[in-house]
Amino acid sequence: MSYGPPPGVGSHGSASAGASGRPGSAAAPSTAVSLSPDEGWHCTHSYYRFDRAALKGFTAAELAEGLKQFEALLDPAAAEQPARMQTSLVAGHRADFSTMVLDSCPLKVDSVHQKLLASPLGPAIVPTYSFVSLTEVSEYVPTVAQYGKRLVEEGEDPNGPAYAAKLKAYESREAMMRTQRLTPDLPAWPNTCFYPMNKKRETAENWFLLHGDERHRLMAEHGRSGMKFGGKVTQLITVAVGLDDWEWGVTLWARNPQFLKEIVYTMRFDEASARFAEFGPFYASYVMTPDKVLEHCRIARP
Length: 302
Fold this sequence. Notes:
Blueprint: E1 42-50, H1 52-56, H2 60-73, E2 84-90, E3 97-103, H3 106-118, E4 125-135, H4 144-153, H5 161-182, E5 191-199, E6 201-202, E7 205-206, H6 212-227, E8 233-239, E9 248-254, H7 257-267, H8 271-274, E10 277-279, E11 283-287, H9 290-296
Antiparallel strand pairs: 1-3, 1-4, 2-3, 2-11, 4-8, 5-9, 5-10, 5-11, 6-7, 8-9
Helix pairs in contact: 4-5
């Protein structure tokens, strides 16, 4: 997808969702031994439910301390926290709440999960799903030169004022777009949805055997569909190739929940999705502070 304000403006189904996994302008990988990627962050989505029976076994003092530490552990502004963290209330029975955590260090990302389970409330917190991935720049995000070539192909005069203006505008946005893909700010929009996805490898529909130009054409069409939702939906695509069961993770945020439904429905008609996409489970949730999650889940304070 390609639409909306930061951290989105990516391409659903590229190295942001289904190409070769090669970032568009990434530097050659370093040979240094490290847990941190050369660029970008580790990202983990974690889902949990409260064990109501276990909660009944807590004393009033244990529960009070557990709730206090729960809020402190999930406070993104607290000292020593990962670079980005967001908590959401999950709709449906598969989970009660979720965390989305990003940082250059995977141990710092995972520490949120481990601290939750080791906290006083930990015996009543049950993990139900997780997705491990990395941020990246899609190979389908065009360089300035590639964007100029596209403008010419679409009929712009390379010597005309319109071409120069469009190229300059894109050049001013490009650096910001790449930064927002690699080290994104998480929007405060309340409606969010996460789902994993793959690109097909079936005999007649193998995305990875398509010529690069054809993949770019399909993703350009896909991106144009997403741009119609600018100001309504934004996204982050993370890559999980070699890290999790699915190849890409798609996180959407929207001003209104109906936009989540509309954008997914609309973009499934694009050939890149209709022919080549495979989708995993969808988790709809609502961005909330930890205290509001507890309040909604009826975890009563003693």
